[in-house]
Design brief:
Layout: E1 12-17, E2 20-25, H1 30-35, E3 43-44, E4 51-52, E5 65-68, E6 71-75, E7 86-89
Parallel strand pairs: 1-7
Antiparallel strand pairs: 1-2, 3-4, 5-6, 5-7
Bound molecules: FE2/S2 (inorganic) cluster.
Length: about 100
């Protein structure tokens, strides 16, 4: 659906989405990379488990929650990529632990 505009000076890194290597560019957000994927969703809802995708891209809607390097419920639109980052789509309800 989305594609990155060509930026000849961009530094390319590799992140892993659900274990799959994905090219990204420094300075872009995790949510932007997710929106370029064939399956652009980032989480499923806790009750119906319907897929949700980033929407506002400015930290307001919380539709972009993903797991980043083992930390759950990270806002993908506010998180810049870095080389080797591990992103996992969140599915179903999160567990609460103290
Ligand atoms: S896309 Fe809305 S908070 Fe991230």
């Amino acid at each position: 659906m989305f594609r990155k505009l060509h930026d000849p000076g961009a530094q390319t890194v590799t992140i892993f989405i659900d274990g799959r290597p994905v090219p990204a560019e420094l300075g872009e957000s995790v949510a932007a990379v997710l929106l370029r994927q064939p399956e652009a969703w980032c989480r499923t809802t806790p009750i119906s488990e319907s897929p949700r995708a980033p929407y506002c891209m400015m930290g307001v809607c919380f539709e972009c929650l993903v797991e980043v390097d083992g930390l759950a419920s990270v806002q993908g639109c506010l998180t810049p990529v870095r080389n080797g980052m591990r992103v996992a789509r969140q599915q179903g309800p999160r567990s609460l632990s103290a």
